[in-house]
Amino acid sequence: YPLQYILGTWDFYGLSFEVGPDCLIPRADTERLCELAIERLPQGAHFADLCTGSGCVAVSTLSARTDCHALALDIFPETLALACENAEKNGVSDRFTAALADVLSEPNEEIKNIAPFDAVLSNPPYIQTEVVKTLSPEVRCEPEAALDGGDDGLDFYRAILDFYTPLLTDSGFFAFEIGYDQGQDLRDLASSKGFTCEILADLSGNDRTAILKKA
Hints:
31% of the residues lie in helices and 26% in strands. The protein is α/β, with parallel strands linked by helices. α4 links the parallel β4 (69-74) and β5 (96-100). α2 (31-40) runs parallel beside α3.
């Protein structure tokens, strides 16, 4: 059973987050996504964090960028409630809006009315369905819905590009966490959707983050 769930809290990007079986455990690899968002968001940016989970990406970014506002989306009410709790705990709740949404479906009117976004961030499920079954028992204690990215691991990236491109400003960008072996897949997908794709490595030298901009 994961130590993080036993403790009930876990540190991420210098902040403390409440965690439990309703969310993916925040990992150091994901801090790279926050770093890039903090560096590249324009002044006064409004961004979306899809599949927010514990809220660690949105909350950490807002904590460092006090000029920004975020919309955080998740499909599960219990998970979204945890993200809101973490936003309150870390002092960013006044700039943090939460909404229930299935990222694999077209955004509802509430989300469309909040758009456009200067950036769309996401650490979505990206593990191939067959690989999920082979993960360690500890990892398999985490929500399967936060791990399983479909047969090729790309279901969420495809859906996000299809449904959220119209909600992105012309100068906006997508920033995704990706699997260590998915860099070329994201380049190919980005090209097919009319985007450029920059792949950046984590501290271990593995492909970890993809930045997509309209070509």
